[in-house]
Structures are given as C-alpha cells and as structure tokens.
Amino acid sequence: MLVIDLLSRVPIYEQIKNQIMELIVVGALKPNDMLPSIRALASQLALNFNTVKKAFQDLEADGVLYTVVGRGTFVAEGAMSSDHLRNRAIERFKSELSVARASGLTEQQVSEMVAEAYANFRRDVQA
Prior knowledge:
Blueprint: H1 12-25, H2 38-45, H3 49-61, E1 65-68, E2 72-75, H4 83-102, H5 107-126
Antiparallel strand pairs: 1-2
C-alpha cells in the first residue's frame, strides 16, 4: 500500500501522509474505507509506531481521517474537500512551476502541458 523512501529528505511521517492523501485523490481509498491499524502499518513498513501515529494524527486533525475507538481509522467523508489537500496541491504545483521556469519552459508550453494533462485525466476517468 505505502512505500517509504528512507533516503528521501521528506520526513517519513510526511511520506505516509502524502501517500495516503494521494490514494484518496486517485480513488484507491474512498470515504469510510478502513485503514490498517497504526501498529499493523508500522510493523508492515518496519517503522516506529510513533511515526505512523503522528501521520495518522495529522491527517485526522486535517479532517482527512477519523477514528472510531475500538473499530479503527477510516477515510473521512469530506477528505477530498479538505483544505489541507487543496493547499498541498497548490504548494506542489508552485514548486514544480518553479522547476519548469528554471528549465526554460515558457508560459505557453506549461499551459499546453497542463491542458494535455487534464485531457488525459478526463480520458482516463471516462475509460
């Protein structure tokens, strides 16, 4: 389900958060889907329990996940409308746009790439 890059400069708990949010965005995790327990996920990824717990707590604070005591952790109904997801997407887009500009891509080229990416996404969703 998740893959952790131990050599990445991104903290492990952030990698967990990012990957869970990406799974929600692409539809692999839907509202009210149950996630593995913190202990099970920590064991599966060979990580410290507290690292996974921090990721889950952050996602719960952002309204992406909710916990039912004695039952588990689930994807929240409003996970897709979470401000955190939107803000994360904006920040990632800005960062990648800076890379594109530094690489010499023009505004027109970037606009065409965005339009093409959205067209591909629409085609994939309809398929």
